[in-house]
């Protein structure tokens, strides 16, 4: 990845995209879990869409994995400070920006649909937005070290949930009270099964992590969804309020909020089928329970 990024800085994007083909082909051949997980997702999406989305063929599985390779390159571009090298639109952020501009706190559920780091970089584009990101980086320690070597600021305003403490909880509550925004992934199941809520996703029951909804309800603040989907080579960022938890969590429920978020993901998957990057057996637990 270091070599690929160096090639990008010297020669531009096209040579890297060409080199990615054999790299992704190797990944396609050796990673059975990623390959079968992609097939499972594409099959479910194909049935859910009534046959309008790409079929779960080997070629489309490769295209799905290749899109992930492009996403990794874009992550490196974003955190190198060259975000303007990418095409993107911020037209869908009006509600998000007006809420943050009013000094009101909120929890923002992001996802692995599109480029999660592009959503994180919004905090760099809007200095008036106080954004804190909760992440679990144990799966990608080397990648995060690479990001830090490219740009030390890539680790700013980040709290690792694997080391979450009472002090962190108090810090988050204080940030919300001061009008801060807390971003947390709503579609990555914890390492150990548990702390999940079942939702209907792409026609089947799936377990979604409960963190974003529990945090919003506990802190008594609104919950937004923020997505960054690549469509036709350009990232389209959009934001929508999916739950209005009142003080003390009097209004709405965790189950309703989780389902609303899953509905948003379904819309994005239908719009850009190769942009959902969860390459593990996402529906496995629910299948085993059945």
Automatic annotation (TrEMBL):
One of its GO terms (molecular function) is acyltransferase activity. The lineage of its organism: Bacteria, Pseudomonadati, Pseudomonadota, Betaproteobacteria, Burkholderiales. It is found in: Cell inner membrane. InterPro entries: LipA_acyltrans. The keyword Nucleus does not apply. This is Acyltransferase. Its main location: membrane. Keywords: Acyltransferase, Cell inner membrane, Cell membrane, Membrane, Transferase, Transmembrane, Transmembrane helix. GO terms for biological process: glycolipid biosynthetic process. One of its GO terms (cellular component) is plasma membrane. The chain crosses the membrane at residues 6-29. It comes from Polynucleobacter paneuropaeus. It comes from the Bacteria.
């Amino acid at each position: 990845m270091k070599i690929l990024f160096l090639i990008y800085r010297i020669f531009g994007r096209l040579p890297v995209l060409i080199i990615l083909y054999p790299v992704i082909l190797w990944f396609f051949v050796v990673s059975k879990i990623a390959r079968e997980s992609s097939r499972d997702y594409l099959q479910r999406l194909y049935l859910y869409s009534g046959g309008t989305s790409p079929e779960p063929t080997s070629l489309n599985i490769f295209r799905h994995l290749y899109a992930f390779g492009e996403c990794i390159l874009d992550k490196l571009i974003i955190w190198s400070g060259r975000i303007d090298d990418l095409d993107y639109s911020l037209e869908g952020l009006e509600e998000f920006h007006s809420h943050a501009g009013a000094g009101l706190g909120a929890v923002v559920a992001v996802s692995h649909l599109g480029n999660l780091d592009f959503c994180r970089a919004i905090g760099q584009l809007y200095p008036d937005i106080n954004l804190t990101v909760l992440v679990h980086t144990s799966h990608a320690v080397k990648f995060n070290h690479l990001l830090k070597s490219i740009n030390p600021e890539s680790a700013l305003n980040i709290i690792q949930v694997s080391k979450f403490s009472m002090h962190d909880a108090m810090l988050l509550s204080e940030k919300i009270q001061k009008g801060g925004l807390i971003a947390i992934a709503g579609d990555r199941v914890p390492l150990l099964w548990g702390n999940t809520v079942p939702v209907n996703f792409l026609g089947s029951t799936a377990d979604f992590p409960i963190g974003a909804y529990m945090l919003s309800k506990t802190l008594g603040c609104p919950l937004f969804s923020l997505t960054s989907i690549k469509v036709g080579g350009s990232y389209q960022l959009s934001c929508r309020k999916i739950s209005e938890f009142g003080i003390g969590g009097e209004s709405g429920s965790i189950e309703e909020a989780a389902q609303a978020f899953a509905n948003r993901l379904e819309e994005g998957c239908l719009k850009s089928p190769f942009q959902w990057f969860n390459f593990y057996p996402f529906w496995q637990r629910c299948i085993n329970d059945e």
